[in-house]
Write a structure and sequence with these properties.
The chain has an eight-stranded antiparallel barrel. It has one helix and eight strands; from the N terminus they run H-E-E-E-E-E-E-E-E. It has one helix spanning 2-23, and strands at residues 36-47, 57-69, 74-85, 95-107, 114-131, 133-151, 156-168, 178-191. By secondary structure, it is mainly β. It starts with a helix and ends with a strand. Strand 4 (95-107) and strand 5 form a beta hairpin. Helix content is 11%, strand content 59%. It is elongated, with a radius of gyration of 18 Å.
Length: 193
């Protein structure tokens, strides 16, 4: 089943890349927007647990992104994030969460070098927790958010800040719902003119 999803995603990315040449307006300077972007981010998560109450805790981690610019405004995005917390709320519980999310990003390109964007991604979440014994669970995940990026060199840019709401449905024996806040910052590499 996971292989089926991976193949479907790769087909969608290949189709996106094939349509890219037809999607850009003819009056646009090709050096302004690259076809592809790779990103690496530091992520701060504010997570909620245990079930039924806040019991909120913080997690640190990173994410990698792959973006295909389809038009000057619309892009297809893959975002893989990993976050970890140790000794949650003074217990010996350790949590590792991996989010793998895909979807569209809308970028508002204007006359300045700052590019605000918004995105809505769907996919999955995987949690590994050592509460009494190791538990490994997978679930549905959604991310809605946005941020601001800028280029600092022709091939390099900065994801200045991104703030996202991350919703997951990891089983927790009460309501199977997690509402998390993610703040990210990092660098991007642009290629494919």
């Amino acid at each position: 089943m996971h292989l089926h999803k991976a193949v479907l995603f790769l087909v969608l990315l290949a189709l996106s890349a094939a349509l890219y040449g037809q999607a850009m307006p003819t009056g646009m300077n090709a050096t302004d927007i690259s076809r592809f972007e790779l990103g690496g981010n530091y992520n701060f998560f504010h997570a909620n647990a245990p079930p039924g109450q806040c019991g909120c805790f913080n997690m640190n981690g990173g994410s990698g992104t792959f973006l295909v610019n389809l038009t000057t405004a619309w892009s297809a995005l893959a975002d893989i994030a990993v976050a970890q917390a140790s000794n949650v709320n003074g217990t010996s519980q350790n949590i590792l969460i991996i989010n793998y999310l895909f979807g569209p990003r809308y970028s508002y390109r204007n006359h300045t070098r700052w590019v605000p964007y918004g995105e809505a991604l769907l996919g999955g979440a995987k949690e590994n927790v050592n509460f009494q014994f190791d538990i490994n669970r997978q679930s549905f995940g959604v991310l809605v958010g946005g941020g601001v990026s800028t280029k600092i060199k022709p091939k390099w840019g900065i994801n200045v800040i991104e703030v996202d709401y991350v919703y997951t449905r990891i089983p927790n024996a009460v309501n199977d719902t997690q509402n998390n806040l993610r703040i990210a910052t990092g660098v991007t590499y642009h290629f494919g003119g």
